[in-house]
Amino acid sequence: MEALRLLRSRTVVLPVRDIDTDQIIPARFLTTTTREGLGAHLFEDWRYGPDGAARPEFVLNRPEAGGCAILVAGHNFGCGSSREHAAWALRDFGVRAVVSTQIADIFRNNALKNGLLPVIVEPDVHGWLLEHPGAQVSIDVQSTTLTLPSGTAVRFALEPFARYCLLNGIDELGFLLARESEIAAYEARLGSA
Question: End-to-end distance of the chain based on CA atoms, in angstroms?
Fold first, then answer.
């Protein structure tokens, strides 16, 4: 997993409330156990028509969305089922952070385990971001701040373990594997007791 320390990006805005995981990645694409390729199906039913043609009016299909790594979404993002594929699809598409006033707990946990940063901000900051699509913002994982173009920095909550994993580009398994010798020493002490 790629470390995430400081993210500077323009925002892409999807101001829809209650975006659930089936909208993020429809259930018909859950047949894979790999993370690669799911970005092509991110918001599939919103991005493409029945004939498979891209809908030019959908925000992620617009040229100005290219290269944006920060998605500003409506209230209550990631609700619905617990599918980890939703975080995989966002990451595979190139999104590194999702900003909203509320992010569903299960989605939030899945996101953090896959190097996707969920950022919850106050309604006034969220409202400004919604009104200014394409704004250049910075997210500092170490200091847990989101900085607006004006220089205003706002704090967001992030558990210390999740922050450690993001900063070091590891997941929970990587964290444990890095402590393999400590675990073996502990087990050896238990075996001799």
Answer: 38
Give percent above pLDDT 90 in the chain. 83
CA neighbours closer than 13 Å in the CB half-sphere of residue 86: 27
Question: Torsion angle of alpha carbons 56, 61, 64, 65, nearest 10°?
Answer: 160
Note the pTM of the prediction, 2 decimals: 0.93
Our CA angle for 141, 168, 97, nearest 5°, is 40
Kindly give the parts of the chain with pLDDT less than 70. Answer: 193
Map out the domains of the chain with their CATH numbers. 6-191 (3.20.19.10)
DSSP state letter for 46: H
Overall residue count recorded for the chain in this entry: 193
Distance CA 9, CA 72 (A): 12
